[in-house]
Amino acid sequence: MIVTDRASGARRLAILRLTLSDFRCYRFLRMDMDSRPVVLTGPNGAGKTNILEALSLLTPGRGMRGARIAEIGRRDAGEGAAWGVAAALRGPDGEVEIATGREAGAERRSVRIDGQPARNQMVLGETMSAIWLTPAMDRLFLEGSAGRRRFLDRLVLGADPGHAARAAAYEHALRERARLLRAGGADARWLATLEEAMAERGAAMAAARRSAVGRLNTRCAAGRGPFPAAALTVAGVEEWLDEDGEEGVAGRLRQALAASRRRDAEAGGAAEGPHRSDLKVVHVANGVAAESCSTGEQKALLIAILLAHAQVLAEERGAAPILLLDEVAAHLDADRRAALFDELRGLDAQSWLTGTDEAVFAGLGADAQFFRVAAATATRVAQ
C-alpha cells in the first residue's frame, strides 16, 4: 500500500480540476476538488454518469460507454460541433494538464498533454489510469465474451500502456485481412504480411493478459472481507502459452491463420486469435463459476477484482488508478458498503462515486467531498 499524507494526497493519482465544454448535457462545467474521493449525488438523468464518462475518456479508448466521437457532443451544439474534456491531474511525478476532445468536424478526437498535441490517444495511458464499474456491467458474466475481453484489456492497460497500441494494430490487421478474404483473389504475400502482424501482436496481447491475470490472482486469492476470493483464467490462445511460450504462440497462430483462409472468407473474421478469448472467473469459496452465482455474488466478485487490480497498480506504478463507481454503493448491503468504503480508504485512491441518495455515502464522512448534480451543474456540498 502507498503511504500518503492524506491532507495533501501527494502520492495519490487525483483529478484536481475538471472542465467540460459542450460535453453531453454540459454547455460548460468546471469542478475544483482535492485528492479525496468525490461523491456525486442527484436525481436520475442529472448528468452524474456523464462526468464519470468524461473522466474515462482521459484514458485510451472509447471510455465507459464505448461511444463514437460524434455521439458525445452536446446535442444542442449541432452536428459536427466541437467538445472537450480537460483536467489537472496530480500523480507521483507531479501535476500535468491533460485534455481530449473533438475539433469541429473532425473524425478523430485530439489529445493534448500540458498544452502540446500528442501523437495519439495511446499516450493517455502513460499519464492517467482509471477503471470503472457501471450498472451495465452487472451482466458481465452472463452476456457474450466481448464485454469480458474489454474488461480484461482495461485491466491489462492499467499496468501496460503499450497494450492499447498492440490491440489496435491487431484489430486493424484483422479487419484488413477479413476485407481481402471477402473480396477474393487476394495477394497471398499481402495476406501473409497481415497474418504475421496478427500473430506477433496477438501473441504479445495473450502474454500481457496472462501476466496481468497472474498478478491479479495473487491478490484475489484471499478475498477482501465480505468480497469473495476469485480465481481468474483466460480461455483461448492464452492457454497455448503453457506449452509454447510467446514466440511459439506467434508461430502457432500464424500457421492457424494461413490454414483457415477459406473458412474465414466464408465466415468472416478469424477462427483463432485473442479476439476470441474469454475471461473466466470462479468464486473460490464455493467453486461456482461466476455466471452461475447470484446477482449479488457477481457484483461482489467484480468489486473484489477491481480492488485487487487497484492494489496491484498502486504497488507497480506508485499510485492506485482513479476508480469510477457508477451507482455501485446503493446496491450493496450495509456490510459490503462499509467494507467498500474501508477498502477505498486503504487503497488511498481518488474514487468517484455516484448515487441518488447522499445518505448512502454517509460512511465516508469527511474522507470524501460531496457535489450535488442537477440541471447540468455540479455544486459542492458544505460539510
Q: Overall mean pLDDT score?
A: 93
| Main beta-sheet strand count, sense and barrel state | 6 strands, antiparallel
Structural class: alpha/beta
Spatial arrangement of strands, main beta sheet: 2-1-4-5-6-7
Q: How many helices does DSSP assign?
A: 9
Order of helical and strand elements: EEEHEEEEHEHHHEHHEEHEHEEE
Under CATH at level 1, the class of the largest domain stands as: Alpha Beta
CATH architecture of the largest domain: 3-Layer(aba) Sandwich
Taking Cα atoms only, what radius of gyration do you get, to the nearest Å? Answer: 22 Å
Shape: globular
- Which consecutive residue ranges, at least 5 long each, have pLDDT under 50? 1-10
Q: How would you classify the quaternary structure? A: single chain
Number of strand segments: 15
Structural domains: how many:
2
| CATH third-level topology of the largest domain | Rossmann fold
Give the terminus-to-terminus CA distance: 28 Å
Which percent band covers the strand fraction? 15-25%
What are its keywords?
single chain; 383 residues; alpha/beta; Rossmann fold; Glutathione S-transferase Yfyf (Class Pi), Chain A, domain 2; 2 domains; six-stranded antiparallel beta sheet; six-stranded mixed beta sheet; 21% strand
